[in-house]
């Protein structure tokens, strides 16, 4: 038992000794680290003192530089930089960027001042020379003034002679003027007499017109009631000049009539324009007054000449109202292989019409067809497989389908131009070596014919009555 206690005591003593050794070693390590840290702190303090001395020296130099450049010690870097940029902009904008600093700038300014001083000296020398030249010019001027004074006196003497001559001519002109005044008074009397005679003749004609109006009213009262479904005329022929092939109609500016509108002419005894036999056609050339226009005869029948009182009618033009049209297919009026759709639009516009719809890009339709659209004008069906032709084919299908749905009459381009009296300009084509390929465009062959609806070809359908709203 005693042996065990000794062993335990020995183990405790050994543990305490080991612990003491470890404690001593730790203290030695801690002491060494403390000495290292103190050495580092001393080094850092010395470095900080050196840096403070360097910063103080740099600050002293910076303050000295500020004073040399005209700044205060308390001015900040931003203040100095801003003032520097302003000085460079103000004084160094004309110099290269490599010399935009105070020292090079001052040297350049000194050189510029030196050049200016030299220029000033040169200018003073030039001024002296100019003064001498000015004195010479003054002497020459005085000499010339003396010569001009002598010439002026001579001119005054000549002017006096011309004034006398002018006065004589003036008296002659006054006498001639008095003679012309007497002749003018006599002619005025003659004009007044002619006006009086013309006024009497006009009054007599007015009485005759009033009598004719009463006769017309009496004749109309004795006639039967007209057909309510008859197509009325657009106007009347007021006067005909058979020699010059000209007529005057009772339509004008207030009727929204424009030049180049074509009318069919038929007998004044007919009451239905659609059933009347055509006597010829006319084309408006000049608008004379609100209800008077001049036209030229484009076609007539020698055995049935155009007469005063004949009626006129246009399938396209409508008084005060625009007629709508739609266009489909390729439009080639003159056969040159190029699109004439703009020319067709111009023809429709000249006749006071408008284009409601026409083929667009991508097979779409630009515009919209409505029940008020009067005709779908069909050009040549595009049979090519090119994208542009395929787009026109799609637009063709859409527009013809809309025409059938809305009851819009379809008419070919040639029939439309013929019914309007439009004539295509004839042109010559050179043959041989001077011939051009575009003068012989490709013409597609086939049995394709444009679709037609229930309306008969070659005629226009009756015009719809204008809305009352």
Automatic annotation (TrEMBL):
Compositionally biased tracts (Low complexity): 46-62
Region entry Disordered, spans: 41-62, 184-206, 442-469
Keywords assigned by UniProt, alphabetized: Membrane, Transmembrane, Transmembrane helix
Residue ranges crossing the lipid bilayer per the database entry: 12-30
Protein name: Uncharacterized protein
Organism of origin: Bythopirellula polymerisocia
């Amino acid at each position: 038992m005693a042996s065990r206690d000794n062993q335990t005591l020995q183990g405790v003593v050994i543990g305490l000794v080991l612990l003491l050794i470890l404690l001593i070693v730790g203290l030695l390590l801690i002491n060494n680290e403390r000495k290292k840290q103190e050495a580092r702190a001393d080094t850092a303090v010395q470095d900080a003192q050196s840096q403070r001395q360097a910063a103080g020296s740099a600050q002293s130099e910076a303050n000295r530089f500020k004073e040399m450049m005209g700044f205060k010690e308390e001015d900040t870097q931003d203040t100095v930089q801003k003032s520097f940029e302003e000085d460079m902009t103000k004084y160094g904008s004309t110099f290269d960027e490599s010399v935009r600093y105070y020292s090079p700038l001052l040297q350049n300014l000194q050189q510029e001042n030196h050049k200016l001083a030299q220029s000033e000296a040169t200018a003073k020398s030039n001024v002296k020379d100019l003064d001498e030249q000015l004195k010479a010019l003054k002497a020459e001027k005085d000499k010339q003034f003396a010569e001009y004074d002598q010439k002026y006196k001579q001119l005054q003497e000549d002017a006096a002679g011309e004034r006398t001559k002018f006065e004589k001519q003036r008296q002659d002109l006054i006498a001639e003027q008095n003679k012309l005044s007497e002749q003018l008074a006599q002619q005025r009397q003659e004009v007044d007499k002619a006006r009086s005679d013309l006024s009497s003749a006009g009054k007599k004609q007015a009485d005759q017109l009033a009598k004719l109006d009463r006769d017309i009213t009496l004749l109309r009262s004795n006639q039967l009631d007209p057909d309510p479904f008859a197509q009325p005329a657009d106007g009347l022929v007021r006067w005909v000049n058979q020699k010059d092939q000209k007529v005057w109609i009772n339509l004008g500016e207030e009727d929204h009539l424009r030049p180049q509108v074509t009318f069919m002419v038929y007998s004044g005894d007919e009451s239905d324009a659609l059933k009347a036999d055509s006597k010829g056609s006319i084309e408006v050339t000049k608008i004379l007054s609100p209800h008077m226009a001049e036209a030229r005869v484009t076609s007539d029948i020698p055995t049935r000449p155009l007469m005063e009182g004949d009626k006129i009618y246009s399938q396209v033009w409508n008084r005060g109202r625009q007629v709508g049209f739609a266009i489909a297919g390729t439009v080639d009026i003159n056969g040159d292989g190029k699109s004439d759709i703009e020319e067709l639009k111009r023809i429709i516009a000249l006749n006071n019409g408008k284009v409601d719809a026409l083929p667009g890009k991508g097979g779409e339709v630009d515009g919209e067809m409505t029940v008020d659209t009067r005709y779908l004008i069909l050009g040549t069906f595009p049979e090519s497989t090119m994208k542009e032709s395929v787009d026109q084919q799609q637009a063709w299908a859409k527009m013809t389908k809309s025409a059938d749905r809305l009851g819009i009459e379809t008419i070919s381009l040639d029939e439309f131009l013929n019914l309007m009296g439009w004539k295509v300009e004839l042109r010559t084509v050179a043959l041989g070596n001077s011939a051009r390929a575009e003068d012989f465009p490709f013409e597609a062959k086939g049995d394709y014919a444009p679709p037609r609806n229930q309306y008969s070809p070659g005629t226009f359908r009756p015009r719809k009555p204008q809305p009352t709203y």
